[in-house]
Amino acid sequence: MKILLTDATGYIGKRLLPVLVEHGHEVICCVRDKSRFNPPSSLKSKIDVIQIDLLNKDSLSKIPKNINAAYYLVHSMSASSNYKSLEQQSAINFKNALNKTTVEHVVYLSGITNETELSEHLTSRKIVEHELGTGNYNLTTLRAGIIIGSGSASFEIIRDLVEKLPVMVTPKWLNTKCQPIGISDVIKYLSKVLLNKPTYNKNYDIGGPDILTYKAMLLEFAKVRNLKRKIYTVPIMTPRLSSYWLYFVTSTSYKLAVALVNSMKIEVICRPNNLNNILNITPINYNKALTNAFAKIENNQIVSSWKDAYASSGIDSHISDFIQVPTFGCFIDQRKLKFKSRTDCIDKIWKIGGQTGWYYGNILWKIRGFMDKLFGGVGLRRGRTNPNTLHVGDALDFWRVLYANKEEGRLLLFAEMKLPGEAWLEFKVVSETLIQTATFRPLGLMGRLYWYAVLPFHGFIFNGMIKKITKAK
What tens digit of pLDDT does each residue of 415-431 get? Predict the structure, then answer.
């Protein structure tokens, strides 16, 4: 079967793709930016890739007319302040485009929306479901609440809270009940419901067997990690304070924190249904989902992470917009140093950031990350998805990977921290020399003042960093 997969670079899409290929389907991957799509080499000969923008009707003409089914996995919970109207328009454009094809079945992954009063985020998902449901095809909607898996936003936020705070004074919404589900089960539901006629034109809530409060989820996480934690809830913490609390303690962006807090005040418990019998699925419990997630982390097998999505930084641009590093009107700090071992030098470059740090002046990097958080930036807490590998589009602390070619020995990063301008950091191996280049394009007078203010620190940090990277083990 020919299957259209939207958001193939997303957290769910990356994990669903190999399953669809394994099942013998021909998959057309829809991405907004081809440069950041890095499927495993084993899949490349079995898929097609098209670059589309759901808000650009003309680009949707690239969708093949002879598809059998499609997945709608697109969500932009924190991409912009008017995401609700943008999501609705995206759904309308997608529906209209599919009406011109032979598609029989569309599968939409949504959120659980059973309460009368919903957050803006959940209301948006319900609107999208309605729009998709008016197309000339059969729609199946799977509604999930908290998804637990390595790299998922929910898992990483819980992890940040539990591992960093021995004692938590928390907002009262931690007593709200939810029904978490493991990512492996989400993928099973998505793959098994495909072209399954008994599920046509129906919606199903999917969740694990446990109904827990958010507080209970945090304490269970602590138990799995053998950590002693105390949690106290208070009724006086407003949604705004709750959002700031979540934003500063975890790696989430502020916009995402606001959307999450508003959603976490609403119970997300599954309605009874017979989908498990139809698909022959027995969901795993919360404890098992946590155990599976840590097994993936410990073996460096994180397939996808929410942090690599643009929503984690609040930007909404193509990587290709920044791949050409400018020179005109820019400040440039370039350093060159010979190395003894090319392999050792490149390995160090490819492990930079995250748990490894930046090789020199790490405390200054942490201070810069903290300052970035104070001004609404991403800070350093995003880390990196994998400690050893880098791909175009990956988040790396408060940078985004624009270009990564290990054989060539070149890594190019673009800054997503709050700056009065734009910044690039490049590592390039030429012959027996490492060329390390920091480029800053200032925005007005403030940008120029910023560059001269940090110039002394650059001299200290960048000089020490290149020495550490080129030094033999």
Answer: 988 889 999 999 999 99
